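Revision sheet: structure tokens.
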Amino acid sequence: MATFFTTSIEYLKGVGPQRAALLNKELKIFTYADLIQHYPLRYEDRTKFYEIKELSEELQYVQVKGKVVSKELVGTGFKKRLVAYFKDASGEIELVWFQGIKWIDEKLKSGQEYVVFGKPNRFGSKFSIAHPELELLTLNNEKEGSIYPVYPLTEKLRSRHLDSKTVSKLIRDVLTVAQEKIRETLPVDVLQKFHLVSKKEALLNIHFPKSYEHLAQAQKRLKFEELFYIQLKLLKLKIVREEKFKGHVFKDASLVTTFYNNHLPFELTEAQKRVIKEIYADLRSGKQMNRLLQGDVGSGKTIVAFICILLGISSGAQCALMAPTEILAQQHYNNLKRYAEKMQISIGILTGSTKKSERRVLHEGLQTGELKILIGTHALLEEEVQFKNLALAIIDEQHRFGVAQRSKLWNKNFSVVPHVLVMTATPIPRTLAMTLYGDLDVSVIDQLPKGRKPIKTIHQFDSHRLKVNQFLRDQMTSGRQVYIVYPLIEESEKLDLKDLMDGYESVCRAFPDVAVSIVHGKMKPEAKDFEMKRFVKGETQIMVATTVIEVGVDVPNASVMVIENAERFGLSQLHQLRGRVGRGAEQSYCILMTNYKLSSEAKVRIETMVRTNNGFEIAETDLKLRGPGDLLGTQQSGVLDLLIADLGKDGQLLQRARETAIEVLKNDPDLTSSKNKVIYTQVESMRSNIMNWSRIS
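Predicted:
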């Protein structure tokens, strides 16, 4: 059975070595199983035949049966085209070809009856179809149309005559032989509970649906199965980790009590208190913690991190906090140092620019255990950085670190694996969090601190530039600072975007009496840091930048963010940028500048930003607009190479799949019962060809 599905597609009739190499390279189709799981992109309704008199431009695609009356070559050179006059009982249309004329001309016979499929276009009172699909009219296709699968392809495949029709035929040929070999992969009780069709029925109807109802059932079944096995794998990883890896037990909370009573400068929100309780339960459980802490920009994750650090230090441990950039590490250090000094706890910072002499002192303090808290960048991962007893590692903006880098933190303690708290200000939709971080526990701070005013977001067109400039001047007169963000560094011929340097010059012209900083990705790190520091100190009033400021500086005095060409940014990026303001007590503003030409998707993004500050609502909208692959750059994780499920649309199904996986593992963790034999067999067959996602987030 296994050998049939793992057979190379080279051996399928109509493929051969050359086509196989193309399919390998272009579509990652290597075996019969890959081909069967190459699901259609969409479906065309060919169940209905139109009469020519019924045609209209509103119709996306039409199917017509009739006769080619005559044909002729029209025009010369690159304007040359083949025109066929096609007739049924109700009227006549033109069929037109601009490419492959010679080949079509040889095949096309006047007086012959055909079934034609394509997009109708109107010229005056006449209709035409350019590059239609043609099939000889037969008793079969005259009687019954079909729901026709359209497959994902590449230009290279089309140029080699490997079109959707060819792929469809190859799949039909494989399925004809494979039918008897397709085994069930879900237990009977799961199929019954969720009214799912069999695997065999689902595979036949996903490619060649008998009706739209059969298609919907096939999609539901295959999506559920895909999501179920992803969740099963992630949950199994979590169980293994909890059984195998013991964590340092944090029982003493005396430092936290002292901090609460004497040094906490404000009252924690209910959300922060809830999250601290969830984390503390993990830290004293004896199991190694692996928790994701999500909180919108400015929701108070840093203070939660500090309280967790105090729990560690109370219990005689050391703690580390790793940030993706020097600026962010310095910011965390400055924030936490205030609290640490009040509590008389030693704290250090280690980045790429830490001097050798300072490093020596840090290394010594870590090894003796005198240095309790170390904040840093990737420099924390260097081999010579050795702790006496690292028991809690906090990772900020984790999607900027690779799994290999994170795993190095695990090896910084030989006796017991450190607890890991992963923090992110990028709101992750629930469905995505369940799939990407299904083996982590998730805590969410969904409340802003008291007294924090929501940022006002305004959409302005480029024609209102003078009004916007006057508003910026008024803000700066009141002592505020301004960010102006551009999407590109250099002008692109293809995109009519404001070049950053042009933007910088026009800002300097508009505000000749104001000091302006400029920061972009192509600057040397030291130049970038110098400019950032000038802005932080208030030496410059305007910071002109690209998205390098998306995760970084915290300037409470900066209260206005202007985003140029806002239509060019993704939703989550706009939200991250907006989060750079609103750090102080003053009312903050985000101004989205666009031209009048906006795509429907850009309109949704701008409207969403103006309507809400809720990061999770924004993330859900973003997921629906873009799909999961583009969010957070998650395509690199391997988890999201989904064949058929769509996290933007299949949230409910994912929830059911996860609940089912939890139930299965709770009752039968090793999948040894007879009813779960099909799951065990499927897991074993998947084990060999699925990449190994790390046990670390």
